[in-house]
Write a structure and sequence with these properties.
The structure is a single chain. This protein is an alpha/beta fold. The protein folds into 2 domains: 3-160, Rossmann fold (3-Layer(aba) Sandwich); 170-366, Hypothetical protein af1432, CATH 1.10.3210. The chain has helices at residues 16-28, 53-64, 75-79, 85-95, 107-111, 119-125, 138-151, 170-175, 178-190, 193-209, 217-226, 235-244, 251-255, 260-271, 278-285, 296-307, 316-325, 327-344, 351-366; strands at 3-9, 33-38, 70-72, 100-106, 127-131, 156-160. The chain has a 6-stranded parallel β-sheet, with helices on both faces. The protein binds fe (ii) ion.
Length: 368
């Protein structure tokens, strides 16, 4: 009999924990098909997700595309209204009458299972597959499993073991809540370890250089934490998110896909992570290309992104040492180097970098 794994969720946005949960399920059982089903309106929330279905699908395909038999289904978008799992399961049941359906969920969902719409039907018709991230949850899960099995007709409840995901860093604990906390949580959940390390380095480096250029160190730190918040998502997501959020992409932006994350990142930082400081958002907007007449914070982030201490490229030490004394001179050298590199590699040169370079050159000449 065909086995189908059903993994529904808001996926707004997807994060490492989702992949971890799916991997635990795949290690537990062999499945013929794996369906990821992003919700339209999650039953426990009263608003639609911040990311469109297409934007969430683009990330899911990028992060989960290697899973054999995987499909991303738009069932709940097509149905619209509140996304009840029981309705989704009944559609799948009609399409695959002879299959066994496995519903994948994490600890919280399982512990609140009796609040789900027509949960008894789900218990009777599907096998629940439950993954726990916290080792201490095992006792609670076993108790809930025993209780459900003794109170209702259950097709099956499987608890799968997972290695705990370490998302929380000491910085996250120190940050507590607020924007820094949300940014750090996003870094832990979405960015790969190298990107996360780079992000932390940019934040700390920008914070250290901030007093030299009259920038508030805390603001510089936050700008660093947020600057690459969408760099982890594929180009297809960048384009679809830009469309959803009405971000105007120029022909030059589209010809330099590696810079799109500066535009989507600023909007994501505001709409999803809750950053409200316009100066900070403006700095994210040009941190890769630079632009003419940058504010001190914009110049600082542009410089720190390329010159943070773990960056290694020919000439970085000289640029770093110049910039640490005079940020604008450092930024000018960085523009020169970046332009030379793009020409040498035959990569599209974004005109904002040329304009930034010409502006800095003129300013520095003016000031001797
Ligand atoms: Fe960066």
């Amino acid at each position: 009999m065909e086995k189908i794994l059903v993994f529904g969720g808001t996926f707004d946005p997807p994060h490492k924990g989702h992949r971890h949960l799916l991997d635990a399920a795949l290690a537990q059982e062999d499945f013929d098909r794996v369906f990821l089903i992003p919700s339209y309106i999650p039953p426990h929330k009263d608003h639609r997700p911040a990311l469109s279905f297409e934007a969430r699908k683009a990330i899911l395909l990028d992060w989960f595309g290697d899973v054999p038999g995987l499909e991303i289904l738009a069932l709940e978008q097509e149905r619209s209204g509140r996304s009840y799992t029981v309705d989704t399961v009944s559609t799948l049941r009609e399409r695959y009458p002879d299959s066994t359906l496995y519903l994948l969920m994490g600890t919280d969902m399982f512990l609140s299972f009796e609040t789900w719409n027509r949960f008894a039907d789900l218990l009777r018709d599907t096998v629940l597959l439950v993954g726990s991230r916290e080792p201490g949850d095992r006792g609670k899960l076993e108790e809930q499993k025993r209780r459900l099995e003794s109170s209702y007709t259950c097709k099956g409840i499987i608890l799968c073991s997972m290695e705990p995901v370490v998302c929380a860093s000491s910085a996250l604990r120190a940050a507590g809540g607020g924007l820094a906390g949300r940014a750090l949580e996003h870094i832990g959940q979405a960015l790969d370890p190298n990107r996360a390390r780079h992000t932390m380095q940019v934040a700390e480096y920008a914070q250290r250089l901030a007093p030299l250029c009259g920038v508030d160190p805390e603001k510089a730190y936050l700008a660093g934490l947020l600057h690459d918040c969408t760099k982890c998502y594929p180009i297809s997501w960048q384009i679809s998110y830009a469309e959803q959020e009405h971000i105007d992409l120029s022909a030059d932006d589209l010809a330099s896909p590696q810079v799109l994350h500066q535009l989507t990142g600023a909007v994501f930082a505001r709409n999803v992570l809750g950053a409200r400081d316009e100066e900070l958002l403006a700095a994210i907007c040009c941190h890769t290309t630079g632009k003419p007449a940058m504010t001190p914070l914009e110049t600082l982030l542009f410089f720190a992104d390329s010159c943070e201490p773990s960056r290694r490229f020919p000439g970085v030490e000289e640029i770093r040492s110049v910039g640490e004394k005079d940020l604008n001179r450092g930024a000018l050298l960085l523009c020169d180097r970046s332009i030379q590199y793009l020409i040498q590699k035959k990569i599209h040169l974004h005109p904002q970098t040329v304009a930034a370079r010409n502006y800095l050159l003129k300013e520095l000449e003016k000031n001797g």
